[in-house]
Design goal:
The structure holds three protein chains of three kinds.
Chain A lengths: L9 E10 L2 E11 L4 E5 L6 H9 L6 E6 L2 E2 L5 H7 L1 E3 L12 H10 L6 H14 L15 H14 L4 E5 L7 H16 L3 E5 L3 H7 L2 E6 L2 E7 H6 L1 H8 L1 H9 L9
Parallel strand pairs in A: 3-8, 3-9, 6-7, 7-8
Antiparallel strand pairs in A: 1-2, 1-4, 4-5, 9-10
Helix pairs in contact in A: 3-4, 3-5, 4-5, 9-10
Chain B lengths: L1 H29 L6 H18 L4 H22 L9 H23 L12 E4 L2 E4 H23 L1 H11 L1 H6 L4 H26 L6 H16 L4 H22 L4 H15 L12
Antiparallel strand pairs in B: 1-2
Helix pairs in contact in B: 1-5, 1-8, 1-9, 1-10, 2-3, 2-4, 2-8, 2-9, 3-8, 5-6, 5-8, 6-8, 9-10, 9-11, 10-11
Chain C lengths: L4 H23 L2 H26 L7 H17 L4 H23 L4 H21 L1 H4 L5 E2 L7 H28 L1 H11 L1 H6 L4 H27 L1 E2 L1 H4 L2 H14 L6 H19 L4 H15 L3 H4 L2 H10 L16
Antiparallel strand pairs in C: 1-2
The chains are: A alpha/beta, B mainly alpha, C mainly alpha.
Chain lengths: ~260, ~280, ~325
C-alpha cells in the first residue's frame, strides 16, 4: 500500500502543549499522507495521547499549528474538527452509557457523518455489521464487555465518515484472538482509503499494520521512518529500555524484541 | 457609622455561620441539598420558646435539650427516608427534602401558629469605640460561634469527625476503608440538625420568629455555602462573616430592603466566577 | 426529522386532546374553565422545563424566572398602552433576551451548581421586582387593564390563548424529540465531552434549548398576567411553583413527549382535591404527595416498565435474563 506523497493530508508544525511547566508535547513537526497507516509509539507518558488530543481539539495548543487538508485547525472547536473529518477513539471508552449501541453509532453518523436521521440509521447498521456488533445493537452501551466497547468506539468513529482516524490503544485489555480480529478490522478500514494513526504498545500490531512509525519520548519525536528501521534505531531502544541496554544492543546484533 | 454596620455584620456573621454550617456539611458529605434546613432552624427556635415560655425551664437546660431533640430528628429522617435516595441525582434529593420541608412547615404553622414570638430579654447595651451592641446579641452570637468552632475541632480531632471528612472526600474509598456509610450519613445529617437547632435557639433570643422565616434562613444558608465552599466549617465561618458584612454595607449604601438582594447577587457572581467557593477547593480543610 | 407511525400516532392523540379541550370551552362554565386554563399553563411550563431538564438533563429550578419576566413584560407593556397581542410578543421577546443573557453564564455550570444558580436567579429577580418600584411597582405590584367583554367571553378567550400556547409547546416537543436537535440534547445529557467529540456543537445546542424553554415560559407568564390583570413579585416569582414543575414532569416521565402533560394533569387533580378537603393542611399534604412521588415513582408513569410489571404479576417468576454479551470470534 505505497502512496505517492503529493501534499500531506495532515501537517503538524512545531506543535507544543505545556501544562504548568511540563512540556507534554514539545515542538513536534510531522507530516501524514493520505491513505497511510502510521504507528505512534513510545514509552508511557511520552505524549502520544496528548498529541492525539491536540489534533482532535480535545485540548488546546499552547503553540504551533495543525493543518488539515490545507486549513488550519488552530481556532477550531472539537465538534468542528470532528465534522471536518477527523475521528479518534479514546483509551478509556466513553460511550453514551444509557443509550443503545445502535444509538451510539447513529450519533456518530448524524453529526460528524453529515447524515439525515434515516440515513444515519442505515449508516450505523452498516458500521455495526463491519465491527460485528449487529447482534448487540439494542443493548445499552454500559452493559457491554470491554472488547465490544472498543468495537463500539470503532463503529462510532467509522460512522463519522472520517478521512483521518486516530486509534488510541485500541488493543489494551484484549486477548490474543481479539487482537487479531482488531488488526483485521483496521486493515479493512485502511483499504477504504482512510488515513490511520495507531497508538500502540504491542509491537507485533505495529509491525503488521504500520508502514511508517513515529517514536515519541518526553514529548518530542525521537525517531521516524519505516518500521523495521526505526526498531533498530539506538535512540528508540534507549527510550524504551534505557541507556545500558542500548549500548549492549549496539555491540551485538540480536533481534529487536517484538513486544514491550 | 460604618463601624457600627461592620460590627453588626460581624456579629450576625457568627449566627449566619451557625445557621449555614449544618446545611453546608450535609451538602458536602451527603451531596444532598437539604431544603428542610430552614424549617429545622425555625423548629429549634419554637421548641426553645416553648420550653422557656410554656414550661418555664431555664434556657441553659432547654437549649441543649432542643439541640438533642433535633439531632435525633435529623438522624431518623436520614436513616429512614433519605438514605434510600442519597445516591440519586440532585433533582430527586432536592425535591424530596422540599416535600419534607412543606410537611414540617405546615406542622409548625398548625402547631405554633403564625404570630411572631421571641424571647424578650434585655440585659442592656455594650458600648465600645462608638459602637453599641445589645448584650443579648453578643451572647447569642458567641454561643453560636463557639459551637461552630467546637464542630470544627470535632471534625478534625475525633475518629468520627475524620470518618465524616473521609466520606466527604471520597465516598467509595471511605467505604473500602471500612467506614459504615449509612451511619456516617445519618450522623452528619443529625449534626446538621443539631446545629440548626442551636442556631434556632440563638435566633429566638434575637429576632421574633415566624414559620415564614424558614425560607429566609435557607436562602442565607445557600449564599454562605456558595461563598464558603461545600462541607467546610471554616468556609461556613468565612461565608457567614462575608455575608454579614456585605449585607451591612449594602444596607448602608442602598437601604435595608436591598440587603438580601445584595447577598444573592454576590452569590450569583461567585457561582459564575468561582464555582468552588471563595474558601478554596471542596474537601481540603 | 423522523416522522414514522409512532410519531403520527402521538401527534393524533395530542391533537385529539387539544381538540377536546377546545370543545370544552364551549360547554364548561367559567370556574372549570379557569381550572383548565391553569392546567394548560402548567403544562406549558412542564413542556418547557422538559426541554432543559428532561432531554438535556440540566436540573433547572428557574422556570418561574422566565415566567415572571414574561408576566412583568406583559404587565408593563399593557400599562404603557400596548394592545394585548403586542404585550404577549413583548413577553416572549423578554424571555428570549433574558434566557440568552442568563444562559451564557449559567450553562457553564453542572448539576448542583446549575440548580443553585437557577434558584438564585429566581430570588434575585423577586427581590429586584420588590424594590425597583418605578419599573415594577414594587411589592404592591402592577394593575393591568382588564380585557373588554363579558366574563364568559373573556374566560374563553384566555383559555383558548393558553390552550394554543400549550398546543405549540406540544408540537415543539414533538419536533425536538424527533429531530437531531433532541437527539443531540440526549447525547449531551449522557456525556457532554463525548457529544462534542462526535460533532455536536454543544454550546449552541445548550443555549438554544435554554432560550426555547425560556420563551415558552415567558409567553405563559404574559398570558397569565393579562388574564389575572394583576402581577406582584410573590406571584410572579413563586419558589414553590418552580419546584413543583420538575416534580410534575418527574411524575409523568422526564424526557418524553406526553410525560409533562400526564404529570401536570395528575398533580393538578390531586392538588384541587387536597385544597377542597384539607385546606389547613394543603401544603403539608402536597409535601406528602411530592415525597411519595419521588419515593415510589422516580422515573414517572412512563418510566415504569408496564410489561415486566405485568409479567411479574401474572407469572410470578423473574423474566428471562437478557442475551449474554459474549465477544464472538470472527464467524
Amino acid at each position: 500500500m505505497s502512496v505517492a506523497p503529493t501534499s500531506p493530508i495532515l501537517e503538524l508544525k512545531s506543535v507544543s502543549r505545556v501544562f504548568d511547566g511540563i512540556r507534554a508535547v514539545d515542538t513536534v513537526s510531522l507530516k501524514f499522507y493520505a491513505g497511510e497507516i502510521v504507528g505512534l509509539i513510545g514509552p508511557n507518558g511520552a505524549g502520544k495521547t496528548t498529541l492525539v488530543n491536540l489534533i482532535s481539539g480535545f485540548i488546546p495548543l499552547t503553540s504551533g499549528d495543525v493543518i488539515f487538508e490545507g486549513k488550519s485547525l488552530i481556532r477550531s472547536k472539537p465538534h468542528t474538527i470532528a465534522q471536518s473529518g477527523i475521528a479518534r477513539t479514546f483509551q478509556i471508552v466513553q460511550p453514551f452509557a444509557k443509550m443503545t449501541v445502535l444509538e451510539n453509532v447513529v450519533a456518530g453518523a448524524i453529526y460528524a457523518g453529515h447524515c439525515g436521521m434515516r440515513q444515519a440509521r442505515d449508516k450505523a447498521i452498516e458500521s455495526l455489521e463491519f465491527t460485528k456488533l449487529t447482534h448487540l445493537k439494542d443493548m445499552p452501551a454500559s452493559e457491554l464487555a470491554l472488547a465490544n466497547r472498543k468495537r463500539l468506539e470503532l463503529a462510532k468513529s467509522l460512522a463519522m465518515n472520517p478521512r483521518i482516524l486516530m486509534l488510541d490503544e485500541v488493543n489494551a485489555g484484549l486477548n490474543s484472538s481479539e487482537i487479531d480480529e482488531a488488526v483485521r478490522m483496521v486493515k479493512a478500514i485502511a483499504a477504504r482509503g482512510i488515513t490511520i494513526i495507531v497508538i500502540e504498545h504491542l509491537m507485533r500490531v505495529v509491525t503488521s499494520l504500520a508502514q511508517r512509525v513515529i517514536v515519541m519520548h518526553h514529548g518530542a519525536v525521537v525517531s521516524e521512518g519505516p518500521t523495521d528501521q526505526v526498531f533498530r534505531d539506538p535512540r528508540v531502544i534507549e527510550a524504551y529500555l534505557g541507556n545500558r541496554f542500548a549500548q549492549r544492543f549496539a555491540k551485538s546484533s540480536t533481534l529487536v524484541p517484538l513486544e514491550i | 457609622m460604618l463601624g457600627q454596620y461592620i460590627t453588626n455584620g460581624v456579629l450576625i456573621g457568627g449566627l449566619y455561620a451557625c445557621i449555614a454550617v449544618g446545611f453546608s456539611l450535609v451538602w458536602g458529605v451527603l451531596n444532598v441539598i437539604n431544603m428542610l434546613h430552614g424549617s429545622m432552624v425555625v423548629l429549634g427556635a419554637y421548641f426553645c420558646l416553648y420550653g422557656v415560655q410554656q414550661l418555664g425551664l431555664p434556657l441553659y437546660l432547654v437549649a441543649p435539650a432542643v439541640c438533642g431533640l433535633l439531632f435525633l430528628f435529623g438522624y431518623a429522617v436520614q436513616r429512614g427516608l433519605l438514605n434510600r435516595v442519597v445516591t440519586q441525582p440532585i433533582l430527586i434529593t432536592l425535591t424530596l427534602t422540599f416535600g419534607l420541608d412543606l410537611i414540617v412547615n405546615n406542622l409548625i404553622l398548625q402547631g405554633f401558629s403564625a404570630t411572631p414570638r421571641s424571647l424578650v430579654t434585655n440585659y442592656g447595651m455594650l458600648e465600645f469605640l462608638g459602637v453599641r451592641v445589645p448584650v443579648v446579641r453578643i451572647g447569642g452570637m458567641l454561643v453560636a460561634g463557639v459551637l461552630t468552632l467546637l464542630l470544627y475541632w470535632l471534625l478534625r480531632h475525633s475518629k468520627i469527625g475524620r470518618a465524616i471528612i473521609a466520606v466527604r472526600m471520597d465516598r467509595h474509598a471511605a467505604a473500602l476503608m471500612g467506614i459504615r456509610i449509612p451511619q456516617i450519613y445519618a450522623l452528619t445529617f443529625g449534626i446538621g440538625a443539631f446545629m440548626a437547632g442551636a442556631a434556632g435557639c440563638a435566633t429566638a433570643l434575637i429576632y421574633p420568629v415566624t414559620p415564614m422565616m424558614s425560607g429566609v434562613f435557607l436562602g442565607k444558608a445557600f449564599v454562605i455555602c456558595v461563598l464558603g465552599g461545600l462541607g467546610s466549617v471554616p468556609g461556613a465561618i468565612i461565608g457567614g462573616l462575608a455575608l454579614g458584612i456585605v449585607e451591612g454595607i449594602g444596607t448602608l449604601a442602598l437601604g435595608q430592603q436591598w440587603a438580601t438582594s445584595v447577598g444573592f447577587m454576590m452569590m450569583m457572581a461567585v457561582i459564575v466566577l468561582f464555582p468552588t467557593g471563595l474558601a478554596g477547593k471542596k474537601g481540603y480543610e | 426529522m423522523i416522522f414514522d407511525r409512532a410519531t403520527a400516532f402521538k401527534l393524533v392523540i395530542g391533537l385529539l386532546i387539544f381538540g377536546g379541550g377546545a370543545a370544552f370551552s364551549l360547554i364548561l362554565d367559567n370556574y372549570y374553565l379557569q381550572v383548565l386554563t391553569t392546567l394548560a399553563m402548567l403544562c406549558v411550563l412542564c413542556w418547557a422545563w422538559n426541554l432543559v431538564g428532561g432531554y438535556m438533563g440540566y436540573p433547572s429550578l428557574g422556570t418561574v424566572t422566565f415566567f415572571g419576566i414574561g408576566a412583568y413584560a406583559d404587565g408593563i407593556a399593557q400599562v404603557q398602552g400596548f394592545p394585548i397581542y403586542a404585550a404577549w410578543l413583548a413577553a416572549g421577546c423578554a424571555g428570549a433576551v433574558v434566557a440568552l443573557l442568563l444562559g451564557l453564564p449559567l450553562l457553564r455550570l453542572k448539576g448542583h451548581y446549575f440548580a443553585i444558580g437557577t434558584i438564585a436567579t429566581v430570588e434575585v429577580l423577586r427581590e429586584i421586582s420588590n424594590n425597583w418600584e418605578t419599573l415594577t411597582g414594587g411589592a404592591v405590584g402592577i394593575n393591568i387593564p382588564i380585557q373588554p367583554g363579558s366574563p364568559d367571553f373573556v374566560g374563553r378567550f384566555f383559555f383558548l390563548a393558553m390552550l394554543g400556547l400549550a398546543l405549540a409547546s406540544f408540537l415543539v416537543t414533538i419536533v425536538v424529540d424527533r429531530t437531531r436537535f433532541g437527539f443531540g440534547l440526549r447525547c449531551i445529557r449522557q456525556n457532554e465531552q463525548a457529544a462534542s467529540m462526535v460533532g455536536i456543537d454543544v454550546f449552541k445546542y445548550k443555549v438554544s434549548a435554554f432560550v426555547l424553554s425560556g420563551v415558552l415560559c415567558s409567553a405563559a407568564g404574559g398570558i397569565y398576567a393579562s388574564m389575572v390583570a394583576f402581577i406582584e413579585p410573590k406571584d410572579a416569582f413563586n419558589l414553590i411553583t418552580t419546584i413543583e414543575i420538575p416534580v410534575m414532569v418527574m411524575l409523568g416521565g422526564m424526557g418524553t413527549i406526553f410525560g409533562p402533560l400526564i404529570g401536570g394533569v395528575f398533580y393538578v387533580v390531586l392538588k384541587e382535591f387536597v385544597w377542597a378537603y384539607f385546606i389547613n393542611w394543603h401544603s403539608g399534604i402536597l409535601g406528602l404527595i411530592i415525597v411519595a412521588v419521588i419515593y415510589f415513582l422516580p422515573s414517572g408513569v412512563f418510566g415504569i416498565s408496564w410489561t415486566s410489571a405485568l409479567k411479574w404479576l401474572k407469572l410470578r417468576r423473574r423474566p428471562a435474563p437478557p442475551a449474554r454479551d459474549i465477544v464472538t470470534p470472527a464467524a
